[in-house]
């Protein structure tokens, strides 16, 4: 294979998108976490996929498992532009009976093992393992190039985080050269970085391997009855123990505006999900969704422009410090610091304040909703008030630790049935 080709042309991305994401509560009752909506029109998985495409990777596999229909439908509608005749591939790999009599993926490593034949067909030198459930922009070619020149068996993507916050992560101890000397899962006393005792390196769950090395390692792991067949629990600790793992710092490959901080979020809780969406309404968001040089690709539903109607005191269709997507009709509603996804319709005298409203929601008259996440397709009844009485909210809805209320149609139906 000619070595003059870009490393990303000789690489593939394997996206792990099978986990439910149970900490998002009812938001993942009908869809897997990577398929959850984000930022007005995208899905969470679009960030990993867009990073791959923008980095030059055009061979991608997505392993699915839990309630994958919404995710698969999104892939078919929004990511169907890959052309095999141009040596581009996007394969969706649901858990199936491909080896022995096992049907489910037994762990993250097993998800790759069960599809070795498909990865072989891509004829690649390098493979980057990605989680499909984080929000960030990253040039994967920088990390792959670092791996190719280092001689390491694995290169692990790492966040630089304050040491007092690192206990929530898997933490890497590294030497001055970047070699990982130990890996600790959620340590009480995280090891600091060599250059700063107040910082630590946390794993992003992103791994780069040469494919021949990983292929052999996966086959050995599959035959180990003591293994849980997981990258973080089994494969990575073994490589670290041999002194053959290297840390790649996200700061070195994060895509951002000059002077902006490195942005990475695990939106795995209702609070974190609400906050990351509301952050997009800031005057200058830390995550730039308006960047034409590193766009976030997604399914672009055909919708008419957003419309605002009525202009009288107490009944004015308006949105301040908010994002309003195509197809929305804001009819006599006050919208502040909120994010409205596609085809949200609101009615007169309603108020939305710090609200994340997923697609196809209808908000009826006189509703007042503050600090809420509203699931797709919900019909908010006339006069519903949420966000002013936490005790009453908790009687019918899911109220988070930080006082964010999650509203689904099932919750509203139970409330209506009790009246």
UniProtKB/TrEMBL annotation:
<comment type="pathway">
    <text>Glycan biosynthesis; glycogen biosynthesis.</text>
</comment>
<keyword id="KW-0808">Transferase</keyword>
<keyword id="KW-0119">Carbohydrate metabolism</keyword>
<feature type="binding site">
    <location>
        <position position="170"/>
    </location>
    <ligand>
        <name>alpha-D-glucose 1-phosphate</name>
    </ligand>
</feature>
<dbReference type="InterPro" id="IPR005836">
    <property type="entry name" value="ADP_Glu_pyroP_CS"/>
</dbReference>
<keyword id="KW-0321">Glycogen metabolism</keyword>
<dbReference type="InterPro" id="IPR011004">
    <property type="entry name" value="Trimer_LpxA-like_sf"/>
</dbReference>
<dbReference type="InterPro" id="IPR056818">
    <property type="entry name" value="GlmU/GlgC-like_hexapep"/>
</dbReference>
<dbReference type="InterPro" id="IPR029044">
    <property type="entry name" value="Nucleotide-diphossugar_trans"/>
</dbReference>
<keyword id="KW-0067">ATP-binding</keyword>
<feature type="binding site">
    <location>
        <position position="203"/>
    </location>
    <ligand>
        <name>alpha-D-glucose 1-phosphate</name>
    </ligand>
</feature>
<feature type="binding site">
    <location>
        <position position="105"/>
    </location>
    <ligand>
        <name>alpha-D-glucose 1-phosphate</name>
    </ligand>
</feature>
<dbReference type="InterPro" id="IPR005835">
    <property type="entry name" value="NTP_transferase_dom"/>
</dbReference>
<keyword id="KW-0548">Nucleotidyltransferase</keyword>
<feature type="site" description="Could play a key role in the communication between the regulatory and the substrate sites">
    <location>
        <position position="65"/>
    </location>
</feature>
<dbReference type="InterPro" id="IPR023049">
    <property type="entry name" value="GlgC_bac"/>
</dbReference>
<dbReference type="Pfam" id="PF24894">
    <property type="entry name" value="Hexapep_GlmU"/>
</dbReference>
<feature type="domain" description="Glucose-1-phosphate adenylyltransferase/Bifunctional protein GlmU-like C-terminal hexapeptide">
    <location>
        <begin position="304"/>
        <end position="407"/>
    </location>
</feature>
<feature type="domain" description="Nucleotidyl transferase">
    <location>
        <begin position="13"/>
        <end position="279"/>
    </location>
</feature>
<protein>
    <recommendedName>
        <fullName>Glucose-1-phosphate adenylyltransferase</fullName>
        <ecNumber>2.7.7.27</ecNumber>
    </recommendedName>
</protein>
<comment type="function">
    <text>Involved in the biosynthesis of ADP-glucose, a building block required for the elongation reactions to produce glycogen. Catalyzes the reaction between ATP and alpha-D-glucose 1-phosphate (G1P) to produce pyrophosphate and ADP-Glc.</text>
</comment>
<comment type="similarity">
    <text>Belongs to the bacterial/plant glucose-1-phosphate adenylyltransferase family.</text>
</comment>
<dbReference type="GO" id="GO:0008878">
    <property type="term" value="F:glucose-1-phosphate adenylyltransferase activity"/>
</dbReference>
<feature type="binding site">
    <location>
        <begin position="185"/>
        <end position="186"/>
    </location>
    <ligand>
        <name>alpha-D-glucose 1-phosphate</name>
    </ligand>
</feature>
<feature type="site" description="Could play a key role in the communication between the regulatory and the substrate sites">
    <location>
        <position position="104"/>
    </location>
</feature>
<keyword id="KW-0320">Glycogen biosynthesis</keyword>
<dbReference type="Pfam" id="PF00483">
    <property type="entry name" value="NTP_transferase"/>
</dbReference>
<keyword id="KW-0547">Nucleotide-binding</keyword>
<comment type="subunit">
    <text>Homotetramer.</text>
</comment>
<dbReference type="InterPro" id="IPR011831">
    <property type="entry name" value="ADP-Glc_PPase"/>
</dbReference>
